[in-house]
Write a structure and sequence with these properties.
Layout (H helix, E strand, L loop, with lengths): L11 E5 L4 E9 L2 E2 L16 E7 L2 H8 L5 E7 H4 L3 H4 L7 E4 L2 E4 L8 E6 L5 E8 L2 E2 L1 E6 L5 E8 L2 E9 L5 E8 L2 E9 L5 E8 L2 E3 L2 H18 L3 H14 L4 H13 L3 H14 L4 H16 L4 E5 L4 E4 L8 H16 L5 H11 L1
Parallel strand pairs: 2-5
Antiparallel strand pairs: 1-2, 2-3, 4-5, 6-7, 8-9, 9-10, 9-11, 11-12, 12-13, 13-14, 14-15, 15-16, 16-17, 18-19
Amino acid sequence: MRDIVFGLLTIISLTTFGQGTEEKILYVVDSIAIVEDPKEDEGVLSESDIETVTVVTNKPDIIKYCHKDIDKIIFIITKEFAKRPEEIRRIPTFKKMFKNGAKWYLEGTSTPYTGAFTDYYYNGKKYRDGFLKDGLLDGLRTIYYQDGKKKYYGYFSNGTKNGEYGEYFTNGQLQQQGVFKEGKEEGLWKEWYSTGVLKKEVEYKNGKPIVNKDTEKLDKFFTNGVRAQEEGNYEGAVKFYDRAIELSPNFSDLYFHRSRAYLYDLQFDEAIADCDRAIEIEPLYMEAYSNRAFTRIRKYELGGSRVLSRNTEVTVLAGKSKTEVPPTEKALICTDLRKGFELGDTQAMIKEAIKKYCE
């Protein structure tokens, strides 16, 4: 059985090879019918995760279960579900609820749900848990990575963030922490790199940051850099980012954004150097890995092109035809693409590049 990642649907059409026919199939994973295309953050179900598979093709049994015009039901039980105690299995998931307005209800009920809930990844591992009171989030809600480490946590009152909130990197290091008051940031918020080094501190009052003169100056250079880049003024953007980096030389985001301006200006080596610096500061910088990979790809695709003219809509290039990517560079590209994908960059262009350069 292949990994079930992106093609899992409640009813899907599959061509039976060699017969030219189509089958409509319903997948049911750990008693949950898959009624929508899975989101990529809902995880991967592979053969090694599965305890049992039961295929039902008897029409009366199919109609009894779902009352749909389908040909087959495939019931999958994961190993994680199989070892789950019965009292834990009875805790409902959002996939067995519906939302009416702002409140959650159990299927078949007319009263907003009060009680614990637990959601799971498709492989049966815990995704999130918490408590609903009168259909609204109340108390602690926690979201987990697939390896069981915490990803987010936060406290709620009457469906609104109210209390301590925190986010974690995949390595378990605290990424961000602060307090919400009635849905708005309040007091001191801290942000760290995955190395444990403090990235920044911001004081909030009623959801608005209290900005000092140095921070205001840094933000102005950064904002102007982003605006210039959006307008196609890449040289101007680099100059603004330069000024921001002078004020905050250990801020990884500045190097990442300058790398993108360099890339669009076809200054590939400078773009790679800035990605290197961003990753040196933040080893889990997903976007920097992807950007470094595509910078190397563009370097060889454009084959030493130079800009003849540019406006906000069109850039005219002149240059040599693209050159073959050397094996050593291809290896670096693949390493970065796979690292970016591992960290969560699952865009179609990343998958396509992995297939083209790494398989």
